[in-house]
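Q: Structure for this?
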Amino acid sequence: MLEIKNLHAEAAGKKILKGLNLTLRKGEVHAIMGPNGSGKSTLAQVLAGRDAYEITAGSITYLGQDLLDLEPEERAREGVFLAFQYPVEIPGVNSTYFLKAALNELRKHRGLPELDAIDFLQLVKEKMKILELPQSLLNRPVNEGFSGGEKKRNEIFQMAVLEPRLAVLDETDSGLDIDALRIVAEGVNKLKGPENAQLVITHYQRLLDYIVPDFVHVLYDGKIIRTGDKSLALDLEERGYDWLLEAYEKNGRRAESVPA
Amino acid sequence: MSTSTETIEQFVNREYQYGFVTDLEADAAPRGLTEDTVRLISSKKGEPEFLLEWRLKAYRYWLTLKEPEWPNVHYPKIDYQNVIYYSAPKQKKDGPKSLADVDPKLLETYKKLGIPLREHEKLAGVAVDAVFDSVSVATTFKGKLKEMGIIFGSFSEAVHEHPELIKKYLGSVVPYTDNYFAALNSAVFSDGSFCYIPKGVKCPMELSTYFRINAADTGQFERTLIVAEEGSTVSYLEGCTAPRRDTNQLHAAVVEIVAMDNASVKYSTVQNWYPGDEMGRGGIYNFVTKRGLCKGASSKISWTQVETGSAITWKYPSVVLKGDNSVGEFYSVALTNNYQQADTGTKMIHIGKNTRSTIISKGISAGRGQNSYRGQVKILKSAANSRNFSQCDSLLLGDKCGAHTFPYIEVKNTSSTVEHEASTSKIGEDQIFYCRQRGLSTQDAINMIVNGYCKEVFRQLPMEFAVEAQKLLGVSLEGSVG
């Protein structure tokens, strides 16, 4: 579904991604972990098409298309969804209206009829239950006056409504208390299916107690330096990143030869 | 430059749609302003002696004044002797008796502007008085309104048919001594609208005036007078456009509103005068004095304006809260783009007890536009327990534009409350990207963000005007769900 090859990206002249390789197949959940500043959020932003980043080498193929050729909104319409680490507020724009406009853009793109207000509201009410969100949120402007936790839950709520094929969750767990974390994780799990894939970027293993990944990747120095299964996350939880990073440095910063 | 910024510029650089010129023969006064010009205008309109006298007093007073320099706008000196002060489309003898007598070319113009007068006559909803250059062309729905005792039509007609009302109220809110442009208008105003709502009558439809400047080098000086008697209610709409021309044209209007006990007047404007081209050439100088007097107890006057046009806007729709418990409101969206300059805001003068006023101002600056909010809140000693709330927000699109706020607050008693909030924000790349990530185009994203920002003001507009205002800002109407 998604194939990233030798991806190099920089922002304002600073090299951030330096030869990243990653492949996601349908039905899979991948977790990306790594210390601060390793390039995790850059990867999320590049996948979504943020123009602050310049791609200097490499390719991203998504469902057979060159993803880098598509505008951000085209990617979204093709089913790429980013749950933002810091969702912005859009004052005065009603949440329901915003989401209805977004969903109808996606439906138009796929040749489906647009949903009218009544059908849309029904859909939204169902999805809100999954995230245990108060209905009043629908009448408020997008993210305005939301608590940190509400903003994150709102991201996953939008994901539930838009039903993406590829969902990228950028530190969705940060700023959530344990109850909210559970609700969000359960929501994400319900959205998992054989036809879609999820890329979960996180700093802590605790999210992975709830969202069980098929693969765990460690991102450092702009590339994946280690790939493993769920147990890698537990390892990191116990021993920290240092042992891995030291090994990487010793090996002349070559990812493929890091020993287990 | 990033893609989003480019699109912001494309968005704000949309061309003026109403820039066409209608080829009509005009009956115009020679350029320049002397006592003779004033006499000529007055005699062209067959005015009674009292009005000519008033005009002449205004003219003589104007001669003693200097053009104000305090507004935060910059323009080359206006040569008042090079302006044509009167221009009327040539008509068959007496002027139109009904729509059938109006020059079809004129009607065509209004159609282009989206004001189908013929349809208006048939469809219930809005009564339109259209002012073309200096003369009021046709008023729809007149008959129906007449049955209820409502007078709505051109100012000139009212001068002939109801001189006692004109004599009583003209200049009673904005005297000709008020300011430079009000004095000029008082001397040379050529037409405008007059509206009188008798005691206890709720006007059943929106009353609407369209102003259009067509002829070149012509000044438009219209005068609107609205009188709402005790317990009456009226909602009044005003729209304006002008052709695209390389030279600047002067528009100096005066609007006066009088509200008696328990009367309520809502005045909405969508101002879309030609703003000049992208280099700042041409465009209308819009120097307007608008003021309402809440004369009676518990009366209410509400101004809503959406200002997208004009090269320069200088305008402060104000309310004098004289009656106890009276209410004044001002809701404004002002957009400046390219080289447009706006210095706009309001004055709320609290005189009566328990008077309340609300000011919501939303400035949008794009291109090299300069947007100033200037507002005065004055609470006199007599205005015990009065309240004002002001909110002035500025939104910047791009980095070459400017936003400025000049609040003046004066409170002369200890029982009153004044609140002032102000904010300045930039339309965020983050906001646009967030919308695009959800599948919306950049254009739709900007529309949505700007629309959201203006929502508090648009909400105040009557439905059909809200639609027009949002179209004007290039935004689509937010459909409310559920």
